[in-house]
Amino acid sequence: MTDVEENVPVKDPGDAESRPCKPESSGPTREDKSSLRDHPSRLRNTVNDASKLSSEIGMNRDFRMEEKVLPPGSLEGRIRETMHDAFWDHLKERLSATPPDFSCALELLKEIKEILLSLLLPRQNRLRSEIEEALDMDLLTQEAEHGALNVPHLSKYILNMMTLLCAPVRDEAVQKLENISDPVWLLRGIFQVLGLMKMDMVNYTIQSLQPQLQEHSIQYERAKFQDLLNKQPSLLDHTARWLTRAAAQLSAPPPSGPDAADAASSPCSSPGEAASSPEPLSPTMVLSQGFLNLLLWDPEDDEFPETLLTDRARLQELEAQLRQLTILASVLLVSSSFSGSVLFGSPQFVDKLKRVTRALLEEFKSRPEEEAMLTVSEQVAQEIHQSLKNMGLAALSSDNTASLIGQLQDVARKENCVRSVIDQRIHLFLKCCLVLGVQRSLLDLPGGLTLIEAELAELGQKFVSLTHHNQQVFGPYYTEILKSLLPPAQVLETEVASL
Q1: Signed CA dihedral, 358, 363, 369, 372: sign only
Q2: Would you tell me how many other CB atoms lie within 10 Å of the CB of residue 170?
Q3: In b/e form, how buried is each residue of 65-91, taking b as 16+ CB within 10 angstroms?
Q4: Is residue 240 one of the residues assigned to a domain?
Q5: Euclidean distance between CA atoms 188 and 193, whole angstroms
Q6: CA distance 215 to 195
Q7: pLDDT band for position 213 (50/70/90)?
Q8: What does the pLDDT read at residue 122?
Q9: Where is the composition biased (Low complexity) (predicted)?
Q10: Bridge partners of 273?
Q11: How far apart are CA 55 and CA 308, in angstroms?
Q12: Is residue 449 part of a domain?
């Protein structure tokens, strides 16, 4: 999400479909981002938009409310545009009548006044009094009754006030309104820009109150879950099995291979080195392993931890991002072995190859991976061939080109040795992020991951934010479960709620 501009919350204006004398406002809306279709209906029905929004604000410091943008040509978009056009055409007819009918204009001015007042900070009492006086609805109604309502003059005043109150990013939009002479088009433009200013203010308020909102989010989600737990004592059964499996994994003998052993059991003294000997299990280790396991969760498995149901869609998004980065890093690693250090020493070439590869990887959503990977392989080989030629270096021979395409195409298989190693190392990186933090984990990246450092940082931050918020909310429940899995001294040594 982009940086927050200056602004504050606001009353949502009326809807054009239900109130014919008011345009539909551009108030904050968010699409439902999570799907709980595979879970018990009694729990699914309780996970509502409020809890999702609370969780999103709590874990995302850069959270922003955004206006819902309808796809071009969509039915809903066409209906909304038709309704808007009909409303503004109706307003134009009213103002053009003889004598003019100002009833709709008064409704608009009343709503504009409410929006302007809502954009004020508590200390801006002088501006509040000025707006109240300039847009005194009783006085304006009397002027309208005598046919003396000066809409252009009022619009000019509103524009001046918008210039004072808008964030700098909206200055250009407000200035463009000053060039509109038609009163109806001017009012329409005013409402559009005021909608943006309202959203700015909402995001400013959220940003200003972030610490309080985070704490409220934690308390709200925990209380909501506790209410459910009181009604359904078995609500933590899946959570207990999830942590039990994680503890069992860490207690089992490590798998063969250094990367596999690191990813499975290393508590991460640093991202690039393994622990010399297994350490006693701790709540941190068990939870870290448990969270990592969620990124490998079978979508057909209904026994998803109850404490993470609200976050399941987010975890699925992270899993998809992880899979894409695994393939991207594998493609870059294979390609670099054919291209030499000169070509991959060029940041411009690497960035271009990453952009091309990531764009082509989007086809994985609609085509079989093996089929889509053929397109990736051929395009990457072409980019390497052309770049070598442009730099005056020897181009790939036909045999090397065929070998490169073949090795890249083989990355589509999950069993591919390069893909497997990269996957293990990314999981190890994420595990280190949970223990050390993202920035420290980036200091010593395992081989093959340095070219996707920026992408890993983004993935790691999202994963850490999600798990940290979840631990803050459900830490007391995790502590109780872990008491039955770990020696008492180890559980008491690190309270899960404070991780």
Answers
A1: negative
A2: 20
A3: beeeeeeeeeeeeeeeeebbeebbeeb
A4: yes
A5: 9
A6: 29
A7: confident
A8: 86
A9: 258-281
A10: 270
A11: 11
A12: yes
Of 178, 210, 242, which residue is a domain's last? 210
- Among 370, 393, 55, 39, smallest CA distance to 222 is for 55
Is the peptide bond prior to 99 cis by the omega test (within 30 degrees of 0)? yes
Q: Based on the domain organization, do 373 and 470 belong to the same domain?
A: yes
What pLDDT does 220 receive?
87
Question: What count of other Cβ atoms lies within 10 Å of the Cβ of residue 307?
Answer: 24
Return d(Cα 133, Cα 135) in angstroms, integer. 6
pLDDT tens column, 447-496: 889 999 999 999 999 999 999 999 999 999 999 999 988 876 555 555 55
CA angle centred on 222, ends 301 and 65, rounded to 5°: 85
Tokens in use for 269?
Answer: 């003294």
User: How many domains would you assign to the chain?
Assistant: 2
Go through 408-438 and write b for each residue having 16 or more CB atoms within 10 A of its CB, e for each that does not.
bbbbbeeebebbbbbbbbbbbbbbbbbbbeb
Contact 295, 427 (CB under 8 A): yes
pLDDT tens-digit map of 277-313: 456 788 888 999 999 999 989 888 889 999 999 889 9
Give the C-alpha distances (Å, rounded to integers) separating 310 from 53, 316, 403, 483: 10, 11, 45, 25
In the predicted model, what is the mean pLDDT of residues 343-358?
88
| Claim to verify: residue 360 and residue 430 sit in the same structural domain | yes
Asked if pLDDT for residue 129 goes beyond 50, the answer is yes
Amino acid at 133: E
Domain shared by 373 and 260, yes or no: yes
In a shared domain, residues 206 and 237: no
Task: For residue 404, give its domain range.
Answer: 233-499
